[in-house]
Every structure is written in C-alpha cells, then in structure tokens.
Amino acid sequence: MTTKRMDHVGVVVTDLKAATEFFVALGMELLGEGPASGQWVDDIAGLPGINIDIAFLRTPDGHGQLELTSFRSPAAVTGGSNAPNAVGLRRVMFTVEDIHDTLARLRLHGGVLVGEVAQYEDSYLLCYVRGPEGIIVSLSQELTP
Q: pLDDT over 70 for what percent of the chain?
C-alpha cells in the first residue's frame, strides 16, 4: 500500500493567536480553530489529561495544511535547539508570488529574516524567516525569464 498524501504539518506553539496571525499574513486561510480534549487525544499522544487549542490553516492552492497546537495541559515542553542545523523538523517551505512583499507582511507579525534573500541561479529567490515561537519558514519565489 502506498501513502495517499501528506495531510498536514503540526507545530506546537505557546501563543496560538500570534502564530495564527503570522501564517494568515503569509497567505494561508484559517479553516477552523477550537479546543480538543478527551480520551482519543490522550490515546493518540500517549499523554494523560491533554487539553489543547488548535488552529487549522490551508495554503491557497488547497493542498497543504498546517495544524497549530497550544497545550493548556500538560504544559508544552521547551528548551530544544531551534538552530537551522538542529536535528528534527526545522522549517516548512512556501512558494510565494513576491518574496519581498511577503517579507514586509510577515515583519508586521514578528517575522525576522534569518540570513538574507538569496538567488539560486536564474530560477529562485529564497530565504528563511523566523516567526513566532522561533518557527522557521522558508520562502521561495520562482523567477521567470
């Protein structure tokens, strides 16, 4: 049996509102938000007494989704490295129409350019942006000849 699709990427945050606003500014659509708790949530995560708030967002093409999760209980665990070279999920890449316009919008929501906007051959403009909670997103703009 083969995998049908990648459904979504999950990111744990402490400030759900700020993270949601950041990704909406990126151009994602908020599909819904609300609390989740109960035995089924405990069973999935293997943690008792989970009480969370989640927000689901979708990319404009309708294919990619992001789940932002904020833990009320048990408390979220912090302290891991968020360096671009740290082992683990480091970033999510989004293709945008105008990288500089996108950066300007994200800066209004706490986005900070990690390095600089770089050009790869005659094909792409690329950069990393650090958002709320230290989340790193990659931006890619295709260049047309």
A: 90
Helix (H, G, I), strand (E, B) or coil at 27: coil
Q: Is 115 exposed, middle or buried (0-12, 13-18, 19+ CB in 10 A)?
A: exposed
Contacts from 1-10 at CB under 8 Å and sequence distance 24+?
7/65, 8/56, 8/64, 8/65, 8/66, 8/67, 9/64, 9/65, 9/66, 9/67, 9/89, 9/92, 10/66, 10/67, 10/68, 10/69
Name 10's Cβ contacts closer than 8 Å, sequence gap at least 6: 66, 67, 68, 69
CA distance 132 to 22: 7
Q: Is pLDDT at 80 greater than 70 in this prediction? A: no
Structural domains for the chain: 9-73 (3.10.180.10), 91-142 (3.10.180.10)
Q: Band the pLDDT of 5: cuts 50, 70, 90.
A: confident
Q: pLDDT tens digits, residue range 87-107?
A: 566 778 899 999 999 999 999
- Report the sign of the C-alpha dihedral through residues 116, 119, 124, 125, in that order: positive
* Amino acid of residue 89: L
pTM: 0.84
